Amino acid sequence: xxxxxxxxxxxxxxxxxxxxxxxxxxxxxxxxxxxxxxxxxxxxxxxxxxxxxxxxxxxxxxxxxxxxxxxxxxxxxxxxxxxxxxxxxxxxxxxxxxxxxxxxxxxxxxxxxx
Amino acid sequence: xxxxxxxxxxxxxxxxxxxxxxxxxxxxxxxxxxxxxxxxxxxxxxxxxxxxxxxxxxxxxxxxxxxxxxxxxxxxxxxxxxxxxxxxxxxxxxxxxxxxxxxxxxxxxxxxxxxxxxxxxxxxxxxxxxxxxxxxxxxxxxxxxxxxxxxxxxxxxxxxxxxxxxxxxxxxxxxxxxxxxxxxxxxxxxxxxxxxxxxxxxxxxxxxxxxxxxxxxxxxxxxxxxx
Lengths: 114, 227
Ligand SMILES: [Zn+2]
Hints:
The structure holds two protein chains of two kinds. By secondary structure, chain A is α+β, with helices and mostly antiparallel strands. Chain A has two helices and six strands. In chain A, helix 1 crosses helix 2 (41-52). Chain A is elongated and about 50 Å long. By secondary structure, chain B is of the alpha/beta class. Chain B has a single domain, classed as Rossmann fold. Chain B is globular. The chains are: A alpha+beta, B alpha/beta. Chains A and B meet through helix 1 and strand 6 of A and strand 1, helix 1, helix 6 and helix 7 of B. Strand 6 (106-113) of chain A pairs antiparallel with strand 1 of chain B, so a sheet runs across the interface. Bound molecules: zinc ion (ZN). Zinc ion (ZN) binds at residues 73, 75-76, 90, 92-93, 95 of chain A. Chain B: Keywords: GTP-binding, Hydrolase, Metal-binding, Nickel, Nucleotide-binding, Zinc.
């Protein structure tokens, strides 16, 4: 389970941001998580609680926004969203494509604190 | 004094540290003219055996070496040395994947320009290695026929971060009633168009083709230093 290492990285970055901004305590971290990020949401929540203990983010909450896979359909010439990454084909015209535009992100988008 | 809650908006990749290190590694590999392949599979897919054979195959014409990520209980490095290649070991302890920093440490004191190919055998795991760029040119995911035809559909993230699929132990296909077409269809549903090679370390089938494809890929990246 690499969620522990992901959670630790996330906390380190959030702490850096909080300190830069003069926050004393982190109350919430907002994360965007792609369907193809390889991170299991539940495992990340669990890991986050463990790594946050005894830090300025103790008892803070993690808010995860899930991001669908966005593919580019070569036939429609349009981006299409997939909430499940299988099969990798355009939901409108069924054309296969491996052109992934997003859905792999593990991004911190906001840190909330006092 | 009351503290007002504040929201600081950012956009930062959680794996930025690894990505920065991986980029530096990639530049170093590029400058040294070494083609780097990251091998990923589940435990027991025959990754070490396949690697030993491809090292042997390539060593007739190229300078090859390997780095292997071993859990504390394993010793794949010893097996790989049977190929005659220079092999370095990263003992990962309980960590389930290799990170760019571990590779960087393992490279310490190694002059990469004496190499044409460097293989990195990742920890046996089809989930965690997907998120960690090691600066490789090519990521290869191996599935053995004994794992069944549907396995690719269970690991879309890894396959979508890979460049090549290798089907291993094809000599056992008949014995385990492996449906090749069904496997290829599953791969195609997950990542349309990805290259699939079929090998058997036991019979030697497919090894030449895989080796040729690696040499081609290397020549494509380093056109000035073709052999
Ligand atoms: Zn379409």
